[in-house]
Amino acid sequence: MPLAVFVLGLSVFALGTSEFMITGLLPGMAADLHVSIPDAGLLISAFAVGMVVGAPLLAIGTLRLPRRRTLLALLAVFAVAHVVGALAEGYALLFATRVIAALACAGFWAVALATTIALVPVERRGRGMAVLVGGLTVANIAGVPAGTFLGQHAGWRTAFWAVTVVTLVAVAGVALLVPETTGGPLSVRGELRLYRRGRVWLALGVIALCQAMIFAAFSYLAPLLTETDGLAEGWVPGVLALFGVGALIGISAGGRLADRRPFATLYSCLALALAALLVLALTTDALVAVVAVLVFGIAAFGANPALNLRAFQAAGDAPTLVGASTTAAFNVGNTAGPWLGGVAIDAGLGFPSVAWTGIALGVATLATLTVAAAVQRSDDRELVAV
C-alpha cells in the first residue's frame, strides 16, 4: 500500500475528529457563546449540510486542478477555519467557520478518494479505501474522545487548536509524500454524464440507506443502553469505544473482502448488522447489548470499503465526481438516520424503536442492493454478448 494513502488517512483523521467532536463539546460551547444547546447543536447540522452540498460543487470546481495542490489548499482552508473558529467571540462567526470547514472537508474527501483510486492497483482498491476511511474510524476511537476531554478540561477552543495542529501535520505529510496526480483528459461535461447511469444512483442509494440504518441506532445507543438495558451511565463511553474497535476490525477485514467479492461482502455485513440490531431491539440484558454493539460496529464499518468500491465501479470514468457523490450520500444517511430515530422516539415508541427503525432501513438497503446486483448482472451479460 503506498505511503501516500496512509498520509491521506491521517488527514481524514483530522477532518473526522473535527466533524464529530462537537457532540461532546456542546454544553461548554453553548455556555461560552450564550446560546441554547439546541442552537449550538445546529453547528453539527451546518457541517452536515456543508458536506452534502460542498462535495459535488467542489469536485466540479477542482476537476482540472492538480490533485495534490488541491488537497493542500483544502487542508489549509480547513486549518484557517479552525483558527478563526477558536478565536470567534460570537455564535454567527463560529457558525460560518463550520460551514467553511465542512466545504473544505467535503472537497478533500472527494479529491482524496479519487487520488487513492489513482495510486492503488485495481485489485487493492478496497484495501486502499479501507485505509482512507480508517482515518475516520480512528478519529471516532481516539480523536473524538480526546477532543471531548480537552474541551471539558481546557475549554472547547483548545480542542479546535488541537485539530488545527493535526491538520498542519497532515499538510506537511501531503506536501512531502503524496505524488501529484491529475484527473486526466475528462471534462466537467464528461464527468456529469455519471448521473445518467441508473446503476450509479443505485450504488449511492445503497450508501445512503446503509448509513441511515447505522446512525438511526448509533445516535441513540447511550439512552438505549442505559434506559432499556440497565447499563450504568459511566460505562457508556467504554461501550462506544468498543463500537469503534469493532469498526476498526470491520473496516480492516472489509477492505480485503471487498476487493474480491464486493456484493457478497455487502450482503454479509448487512445480514450481520440486522442480526445485531434485532438483538438490540429485543434484549434488556446489558451484557448481551454490549456484545451486540461490538458486532454492530464490525458489520457497519465492514461494509464501508465495498460501498465505496461499488460506486467507483459503477461510475467507471468519472472518479472525481463519484468521490464527491459518495461523500454526499454518506452524509445524507448520517443526517436522515438520526432524524428517523428521533421521530420514532418522539412517537412514544421507546428507545428500542431506534433499533427497529434501523432494521427497516436495513431491509430497504438489502432490497436496493438486490436491484443493483440484478442490474450489474444484466450489464455483464450485455458486455459478454458484445
Automatic annotation (TrEMBL):
- Which lineage ranks, top first, belong to the organism behind this chain? Bacteria, Bacillati, Actinomycetota, Actinomycetes, Pseudonocardiales
Its protein name is MFS arabinose efflux permease
Tell me how this protein sits in the membrane.
Multi-pass membrane protein
* Entry keyword set: Cell membrane, Membrane, Transmembrane, Transmembrane helix
* Source superkingdom: Bacteria
CDD domains under this entry? Answer: MFS_NepI_like
Q: Quote the Pfam families the UniProt record gives.
A: MFS_1
Task: Give a GO molecular function annotation for the protein.
Answer: transmembrane transporter activity
InterPro entries with a match to the protein in the record: MFS, MFS_dom, MFS_Efflux_Transporters, MFS_trans_sf
Membrane-spanning ranges:
42-60, 72-94, 100-122, 129-147, 159-179, 200-222, 234-251, 263-282, 288-309, 321-341, 353-375
Q: Where is the signal peptide?
A: none
Kindly list the places in or outside the cell where this protein is found, as annotated in its UniProt entry: Cell membrane
Which part of the chain is the Major facilitator superfamily (MFS) profile domain? 4-379
* Entry-linked Gene3D superfamilies: MFS general substrate transporter like domains
One Gene Ontology cellular component: plasma membrane
Look up and give the organism this protein is from: Amycolatopsis vancoresmycina DSM 44592
Asked if Nucleus is a keyword of the record, the answer is: no
